[in-house]
C-alpha cells in the first residue's frame, strides 16, 4: 500500500476550494506585486500573456465541475515560446 496512488479526479470541490486553488495558482506565477508591475509598466505582450492566463484560470473556476489537474495544466505562455 505504501506505493499506491490515490485518484482524486472525481472529488467535488466547494466553491471556496475552487476559488482558493485558482487564486493560489495565479499567485504562483504572478504575485500581487508582479501583477501590479505588469499592469503599470509591462509591455503589451506581457499584459496579454498575464490577462490570458488569469482569464483561463477564471474560466476553470467557473466551469461546472472543475478538476484540480486541469487547473495545473494552465500556464502563462508567451507567443515566442509556443
Structure report:
The chain is an all-alpha fold. The protein has one domain. The protein is built from four helices and no strands. It has helices at about 15-30, 30-40, 45-60, 70. Helix 1 runs antiparallel to helix 3. The chain is elongated and about 45 Å long. The mean pLDDT is about 90.
Label this structure with key terms:
82 residues; mainly alpha; 4 helices
Which regions contain 5 or more consecutive residues with pLDDT less than 50? none
Task: Please estimate the helix content.
Answer: 55-70%
Termini Cα gap: 40 Å
Shape: elongated
Integer count of domains: 1
SS strand fraction: under 5%
Number of DSSP helical runs: 4
Tell me, rounded to a whole number, the average pLDDT. Answer: 89
DSSP E strands, number: 0
Rg from alpha-carbon coordinates: 15 Å
Query: How is the biggest beta sheet arranged?
Result: none
User: What order do the helices and strands follow?
Assistant: HHHH
Q: Decide which structural class fits the backbone.
A: mainly alpha
Give me the secondary-structure topology.
Blueprint: H1 15-29, H2 32-41, H3 44-61, H4 68-72
Brief summary of the model shown:
The protein is 59% helix and 0% strand.
Amino acid at each position: 500500500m505504501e506505493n499506491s496512488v490515490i485518484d482524486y479526479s472525481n472529488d467535488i470541490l466547494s466553491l471556496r476550494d475552487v476559488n482558493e486553488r485558482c487564486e493560489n495558482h495565479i499567485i504562483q506565477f504572478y504575485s500581487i506585486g508582479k501583477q501590479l508591475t505588469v499592469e503599470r509598466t509591462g509591455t503589451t505582450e506581457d499584459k496579454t500573456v498575464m490577462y490570458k492566463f488569469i482569464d483561463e484560470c477564471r474560466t476553470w473556476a467557473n466551469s461546472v465541475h472543475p478538476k484540480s489537474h486541469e487547473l495545473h495544466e494552465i500556464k502563462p505562455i508567451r507567443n515566442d515560446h509556443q
